[in-house]
Amino acid sequence: MTWLTSPLVTIIIPCYGQVAYLYRAIESCIAQTYSQLEILIVDDGNQKPISEHHFPPDSRIKLFRQSNLGLSAARNKGIAEASGQLIKFLDADDWLLPDCIATQVSSVGHSTDTVSVIGYYLAKESEVRAQPVIPKFGDFFTALASINIGPPHCFLYPSRLVHQVEGFSTAEKVRGGHEDYDFNLRVALQGARVVTCHSVGCYYFVHADSMSTRAENMRVSRASVLRDLLEYYQRQDAFELDLPWLVHALAGALKFDFYPLLKHALLAQVSKDTLSWPATLGKIEQEELLWLLLRCRATILNYDDEQFMLDWLESQLQRLAAIHQRTTRYPTAQNIVSACYPLKPFAYDDTLVMNVVQQAKTVLAPKKLLLWGDGERFQRWRDWLMLTTDTELLGTTTHLSETVEKQGVRFVPFNEIDFSEIDKVLICSDVYYWDILSLLRSMGWHAKVIDLYATLQF
């Protein structure tokens, strides 16, 4: 479907307890360079009712009043009264830059099923300068698994989609906030096409009374929204969340500290034996997911009684690393990386090297340090360790058939190694790291491994 003429855009402004900011918000709407607008103000039961003196005169403004039913209900009232083919939600304490609507209408072209996202200035009451933020992401639904992409007024929605998802939820799960997050998840589930305007179009004002500053409520509500979605999929035998989405959801829960609230719902999903990595993933997308898995694993190591999740993460690292090794395809239809977790290849920095050296120094004769691997990584670790320690080194590889000497290190077939003589194991292979760790775990020697990835952070 396409627009026949310039579409009417409805701007819905709910207001409760923020009348002092309302004039500025409405003034920014009137100042838009795009004129095909209607501006709907929903007074959500303010003790002193909003009247015409609270905003500049303009024939495009309509005022509605209801009892105090909450933010979602106020937005839904606006949706019910909207005539526009496109809808923007603007909170009373935020405002738009003059070209915001024009830029977003232009970005969707003649499409009637495309959501437009524009950048915003993050203006905090406690800071002098506002910070520009341009949302960047690949798949809309996958990006939402790990982070709330932006405030509601950076989106411009087709009214058809807004009605299709039946507006904003008023359920208990959003009582602490994240109504817009829940709304966007349901829009994404409709397969909405999303375009990003690489410019700033509005201000997002965070002050002491903002819902987004109530950290505990927001943490709980976000977990509740995701848990509701996960439980819905658990009940639907015909539908399944894919592995990239689940990894992003786990990463978001760990990074923003609500994993304990989401744990059981996540475990129910990752326990399914039908999960597999999509064949459509390009090499760089695989690297981003490997990065996320590594940091999820490092964070899970700090939790008690998480052996199942730790085993699952290591098994997925093993599987995805093997796929990545075989993949030569770089471009895909999806953006290369998400805004939430930019690609940061693992690096052997000074801190990591010194950590390994310090652990190697604790290996005292007659115990040995076993280096597993004989490639480039082995050469680098051998050089560092021989320069900095007196530790006796022993080497091995999975396919070694006889004892040999390589660069001053005696290599022994791993099935001939007496592991009672080995104090620590250093895996000297990037490609086969997780295969080797899995083998050592099956032998009961994984506790001896110097974990190169244990200290990674989001």
Automatic annotation (TrEMBL):
Signal peptide: none annotated. Transmembrane segments: none annotated. Residues 10-160 form the Glycosyltransferase 2-like domain. One of its GO terms (biological process) is single-species biofilm formation. Pfam families: Glycos_transf_2. Gene3D superfamilies: NAD(P)-binding Rossmann-like Domain, Spore Coat Polysaccharide Biosynthesis Protein SpsA, Chain A. PANTHER family: GLYCOSYLTRANSFERASE, GLYCOSYLTRANSFERASE 2-LIKE DOMAIN-CONTAINING PROTEIN. This is Glycosyltransferase 2-like domain-containing protein. The lineage of its organism: Bacteria, Pseudomonadati, Pseudomonadota, Gammaproteobacteria, Alteromonadales.
